[in-house]
Design brief:
This protein has 168 residues and is mainly α. 79% of the residues lie in helices and 0% in strands.
């Protein structure tokens, strides 16, 4: 009888473990919700993933994207910063944080993050586009136009209008 109880308990534990969601499950679910414009749902899943994997830098990056979409720029900056502390080699994390800083009226910080993103990935058109726009808006037209032309060369979208506006 004792062996039967032990076997039953073991089977119940296995069944419970099979149904428990992993950090990866929550991360994937969060990504799916984010793609489908359910930013709040995505953040909830990313929060659950971080409870299970608190050093999951990719989770912080993606939660930062969702917070950016919800215009929670301070929250997005905090998430990108934590993710960058854990892994400072992702250029898109720097670009995401630059976008949040720009929206948070920190042009200097945004320019610095764009520069870091470009250092990590020299063909990141969006980083040149944002940095070029911010430089032009701050009166550094020559440097800004150089970045805007580089963004256009790299296939950046919606660059030609900015070049006409700032550089001609």
């Amino acid at each position: 009888m004792k062996k039967l109880l032990q076997l039953t308990a073991y089977c119940l534990l296995l069944t419970a473990n099979c149904h428990a969601q992993t950090a990866e499950d929550y991360f994937k679910s969060g990504n799916e919700k984010y793609i489908n414009n359910d930013d709040k749902g995505a953040i909830e899943d990313y929060n659950k993933a971080l409870e299970l994997r608190p050093n999951g830098y990719g989770i912080y990056f993606n939660r930062g994207d969702a917070k950016n979409s919800l215009q929670d720029y301070s929250g997005a900056i905090a998430d990108y910063t934590k993710g960058i502390e854990l892994n400072s080699t992702n250029p898109k994390a720097f670009l995401g944080r630059a976008r949040a800083k720009e929206k948070n009226k920190d042009a200097i910080g945004a320019i610095e993050d764009c520069t870091k993103a470009i250092e990590l990935k020299p063909d990141l058109a969006d980083a040149y586009l944002l940095r070029g726009t911010l430089l032009c808006e701050s009166g550094k037209i020559e440097s800004g136009c150089k970045d805007l032309h580089k963004a256009e060369e790299l296939g950046g979208k919606d660059v030609s209008g900015l070049i006409i506006w700032y550089c001609n």
